Amino acid sequence: MLAIHLTQFGEPEKSLKVVDVPEPPAPTAGQxxxxxxxxxxxxxxxxxxxxxxxxxPELPTAIGNEGVGTVVSVGxxxxxxxxGERVLLPFGVFSWSERVVAEAADLTVVDKSISLxxxxxxxxxxxSAGLLVGLRDLPAGSWVVQNAANSGVGRSVIVFAKxxxxxxxxxxxxxxxxxxxxxxxxxxxxxxxxxxxARVREAIGSDPVLLGLDGVSGAATALLLDVLTDGALLAIYxxxxxxxxxxxxxxxxxxNITTTEFWMYQDEFxxxxxxxxxxxxxxxxxxxxxLPSAPVYKAEDFPEALAYFRENGKVLLDFNPHRA
Length: 324
Hints:
The chain has about 325 residues and is of the alpha/beta class. It has eleven helices and 16 strands.
């Protein structure tokens, strides 16, 4: 059976290997055996491989933080899932393997009207967005400001915010994204520039902006701080710039802004994940949330997939050996 193993923490090109491993054992009571269909290769997977992610498994091991599969068989007493059903792989079950065993109660069944490709990307970016939007209990009509608005998380934030009656201010780097994000439901979209903060304030007047979402960090944080108002919360969930979070302490103090680093698998969030998985699936099935597409590579072609990712971003790994 094919798997992609992390052999040491460090440079992914050297530490991630396509290997042949034994089939997993038959599922025991409460478990299910799942054929992995697609699993993404994304930025957080490489952070884990580099040893800078909060999860540090014992090596060597498969990794992969999300994915979709088909139930092959179940152990005694399992009533949550049935063979043939399509399921989302839960946190803690590394997805970069042809077959995995998981606790049946942790699996989320998704309707087959959702494509395998979309289902494979449901459990991290959309769920993170749902958690981020809920970090503050804001009344309907409130503003949320975010950078990286065109990312998988950013697009999902737009949809989840609208679901909760919130309005979004979205910062992007390219002008051609403005109309695209408006079509998705964004209220305000501005291209990052020296006068972007002034343009936002002109659009919203004196309205407070009490929640900011930072997926870029580095110099990009300054614009969020410019837009946020007194008493706001700024959540840092990503470092797409490759730079550390270094906000101006004078701005934080003057505006009484609180900062927090977000990780979706904090203990306080775990009970909410199944419901957000289901909500994400519903939004996709209704056509209200469309996740960015990604090219598919067979798992045995992982080096080529990694090279593509380095240049272009997320890809999907196909772990079903029977798919043409």
